[in-house]
Amino acid sequence: MADLHRSAKKRNGFYVKMKFFPPKNSKPENYFIIKYFKWFLWFSLSFYFFAKFLNNHETDTHTHTHTAVLKTTIINHSHHALTESIFRQHKHNILNDLKVYVYELPSRYNTDWLSNERCRNHLFASEVAVHRALMDSDVRTFDPTNADFFFVPVYVSCNFSTVNGFPAIGHARTLLSSAVDFISSELPFWNRSNGSDHVFVASHDYGACFHAMEDRAIANGIPEFMKNSIILQTFGVKYSHPCQNVEHIVIPPYISPESVKSTLLKSPIDGQRDIFMFFRGKMEVHPKNVSGRFYSKRVRTEILRKYGNDKRFYLKRHRFAGYQSEIVRSVFCLCPLGWAPWSPRLVESVALGCVPVIIADGIRLPFESTVPWSDISLTVRENDVAKLGRVLDDVAATNLS
Q1: Number of neighbours of residue 119 by Cβ within 10 angstroms
Q2: Most C-beta atoms within 10 A of its C-beta, which of 73, 95, 147, 265?
Q3: How many other CB atoms are found less than 10 A from the CB of residue 58?
C-alpha cells in the first residue's frame, strides 16, 4: 500500500488518490482505511460475488431455508468483522462509490478459449465466473477515469490436454504478459500505477505461480510484471509461501451453480443421508511418482489402504458424472489435498449439506475471517488419517449438529 501511496504522489490525475487520499502534507484522519484500502475493497467485492451466488441459486422451500440460514450466518459474521475493524470508526461506507473497469481484450485472451466447454465448468473456472459477474455488476464502470480498480480478464486454465491429463498452462505467462503489453499500450492506467490497482484471477493449483507442481511453481515464481497487482487466487496457506508473495485474496474454487441446483431439485438437502463418509476421486494404490513427486503426499493412498474395506466409508476411485447426488446423501465428505491443498469438494460439500472433512495441513480457507469454517467443517492433520474413523465416530455421536 505504501508503494501505491508513493507512486500516487508522483503523478497527477490518479483518481483513487483524489477520492481517498488526503491533501499533501496533511495528516490522514482515516489512516486505517488508507493502509488497507485495496485489500479491504477487493475482499468485500469478492465476498459480494460469493453472497450473490448463494442468493441467486435457491431452489425449493427447504433449500431456501437452509440457504437463508447459511447466508444470514455469513452476513452476520461479515458484519461483525468489518464493523469491528473499520466501520465502528467510520460512518461513511466506502463501498458506495466503488467502480471497476473491465478491460475489453481481444477474444484470444479469453472468450476464444470457451470453445472448450470444460473451460466454463471445471474447478478452475472462477477466472471465467468472476469476469462474467463483473460484466453485469453494478460496480462496473465504462469510464476508466472513474475506476478504482481495473480487472484484466485473461483465461489461462482452459487448455486441457485430455480429460484425465494435466492442465497445460505453460502458455499462461506469455498470455498474461501479452495482455499487459496490450492494455499498457492502449490506455495509460497500467503505467500510472505500475499495475497496483489492477486485478487478475489465478485459479490454478499454486495460484500466481502458474504451475501444477509445487517445486516448479516455486522455482518459476510469480511473474515479475504481476508482483504489484492484486491476485484473486484459490491457493492459500497459513505459512510463508513464494506463490503468495503478492497482494492476494483467497477465493472459493468454482462449482457450477446450475449443477448444484439440478442436484438439489432431484435430492432435497434435508433428505436421507445413508452414506456415513464419502469420497470419490483419485486414489492410487501406489502413489504416482512423477519425477519424484507423490500425489496428495500419499494421504489419499493411506485413506484407501486403511478404509477401503470399511463399510462406513464410501470410497470410489473412478469418475461419475452424477457424483453430487452421492454428496447430498452423505454425512461427512472428505476433502483431502491433491497436488495443491485446496479442493472443489470443499464448496460442493457445504452447498450440498455434507460436513467437509479437510485434510490439508496449513490450508488457508476462503474468506476465513468471515465464514465460520470451524463451525461447519472438521480439520484432520495429514499424519492423523489413520485415526479418521475414530474422529468421525466421535463427532457423529457428540457434535454433529
Answers
A1: 21
A2: 147
A3: 16
Residue type, 45: L
Spatial CB neighbours of 128, under 8 Å, sequence gap ≥ 6: 110, 114, 119, 120, 155, 254
End-to-end CA distance of the chain: 42
Chain-centre distance for alpha carbon 141: 24
C-alpha span between 392 and 314 (Å, rounded): 14
Phi, psi of 72 (to 5 degrees): -65, -45
CA 379/CA 364 separation, integer angstroms: 12
E-state strands within 134-243: 140-141, 149-151, 198-202, 230-233
pLDDT at 47: 59
CA dihedral for 166, 170, 173, 176, sign (positive or negative): negative
**Pure H helices in 187-213:** 189-193
- DSSP summary character for residue 339: S
* pTM for this model (two decimals): 0.77
- pLDDT value for 12: 32
Contact 153, 131 (CB under 8 A): yes
Please tell me the total number of residues recorded for the chain in this structure: 401
Hey, CA dihedral for 49, 156, 166, 383, is it positive or negative? Answer: negative
Three-state secondary structure call for residue 398: helix
d(CA 290, CA 30): 52
- Taking the chain (401 residues) in runs of 10, the rounded mean pLDDT of each run is 36 31 37 46 57 46 38 38 40 68 96 86 91 93 96 85 60 94 96 96 93 91 96 95 94 92 93 96 82 85 95 94 95 95 94 96 92 93 95 91 79
Give the per-residue pLDDT at 160: 56
